[in-house]
Write the structure tokens for this entry.
Amino acid sequence: MSQPHLDLHETASSEPRRGFMTHILAAGIGLLVGAVPACAGLAFFLDPLMRKKKGGSGDGFLKMPVSLDALEINGEPQLVKIIMDKVDAWNTYLKQPVGAVYLRRTDKDKVVAFNSRCPHLGCAVDYKPSEKHYFCPCHTSTFGVDGIKQNEIPPRDLDNLEVQIRNGGEVWLKFQNFRATTPEKIPVG
Ligand code: FES
């Protein structure tokens, strides 16, 4: 009668291997269990940043309180205050004044917009109808009605902004502030 063959060598070596596999499995489960709260914590930490990206008006454009019809072709620029919800790292501040723009209609379906902040040190520029230019009172600089600087103090022209005409006459604007003092337009905020 044949006896069952017992391979003592195989049995002895499989014990430590099984123990090793158990340790690997335990370590894997431990990592998985630890990763869940870590991911939740990371999502919580990033939440305001993600909300900031998702927030605003979808494509970033704001509907202006003036329509195309209210702007005369090649007429005087109109000053519009920009009110937006501001989001910092953890809070949302509703309806905050963030700046102002000059809107000017230059053609049937075209409106140009300039940020009213002077690119020199950020003072607000005024439009002077009698001179047909923008005037910065802080260092007596002027800009043409096309936004081009007329003296050497400002480092660049007025900052133009993207405008779209939608639904046959609504004026939509992508508002942005830019860093003062630099020749290049560097977005801030
Ligand atoms: S801030 Fe406008 S010229 Fe200096």
Notes: The chain has two domains: 1-54, 61-188. The radius of gyration is 32 Å.
